[in-house]
């Protein structure tokens, strides 16, 4: 039983690294699209979709297995990522429309922080199921 704990921690850290990589891609694309004179909502939508596509593609390449079986089934991980992206877009749109004085990058940071917590909680919830 003790040999599974470090493996589970490693799997969790790989998932967090995947989330952070997706967040960095999203932030970079969002910044570039904002500088290309796109509106904040359109720029956010395009950057989020691109980052989600890249993250889902990387999900199939990264080994998230524990003893030759997935710690969470890939559809479960994909569902967590897709729901997090929808939540992220909703939070961002709400922040930008409700607080027009808020900078778009600050709204993106707030929405992404909230959805990062959601995705980590979702992963831990799925991973702890038996």
Describe this structure in words.
Helix 3 (74-98) packs antiparallel against helix 4. The relative contact order is 0.15. The two termini are 14 Å apart. The longest helix is centred in the N-terminal third of the chain and has 32 residues, at 4-35. 79% of the residues lie in helices and 3% in strands. The chain is built from four helices and two strands; from the N terminus they run H-H-E-E-H-H. The chain has one domain. It is mainly α and 130 residues long. The model has no long low-confidence stretch (mean pLDDT 84). A two-stranded antiparallel ribbon has the order 1-2. Keywords: Membrane, Transmembrane, Transmembrane helix. The chain crosses the membrane at residues 12-34, 46-64, 76-99, 105-124.
Give the helices and strands, then pairings.
Elements: H1 4-35, H2 40-61, E1 65-66, E2 69-70, H3 74-98, H4 104-127
Antiparallel strand pairs: 1-2
How many beta-strand runs? Answer: 2
Mean of the pLDDT scores? 84
Number of helical elements: 4
**Low-confidence segments:** none
Distance N to C terminus? 14 Å
Rg (CA only) = 16 Å
Q: What about the largest sheet?
A: 2 strands, antiparallel
How many structurally independent domains?
Answer: 1
Helix/sheet category = mainly alpha
In the sheet with the most strands, the strands line up as 1-2
Shape: elongated
Order of helices and strands: HHEEHH
Keywords for this entry:
mainly alpha, two-stranded antiparallel sheet, elongated, 4 helices, 130 residues
How would you summarize this macromolecular structure in one to three sentences?
This protein has helices spanning 4-35, 40-61, 74-98, 104-127; strands at residues 65-66, 69-70. The protein is mainly α and 130 residues long.
């Amino acid at each position: 039983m003790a040999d599974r704990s470090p493996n589970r921690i490693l799997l969790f850290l790989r998932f967090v690294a995947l989330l952070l990589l997706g967040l960095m891609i999203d932030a970079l694309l969002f910044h570039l699209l904002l500088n290309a004179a796109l509106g904040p909502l359109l720029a956010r939508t395009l950057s989020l979709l691109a980052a989600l596509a890249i993250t889902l593609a990387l999900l199939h390449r990264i080994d998230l297995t524990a003893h030759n079986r997935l710690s969470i089934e890939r559809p479960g991980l994909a569902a967590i990522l897709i729901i997090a992206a929808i939540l992220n877009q909703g939070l961002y749109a709400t922040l930008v429309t409700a607080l027009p004085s808020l900078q778009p990058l600050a709204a993106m940071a707030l929405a992404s922080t909230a959805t990062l917590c959601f995705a980590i909680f979702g992963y831990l919830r799925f991973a702890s199921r038996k």
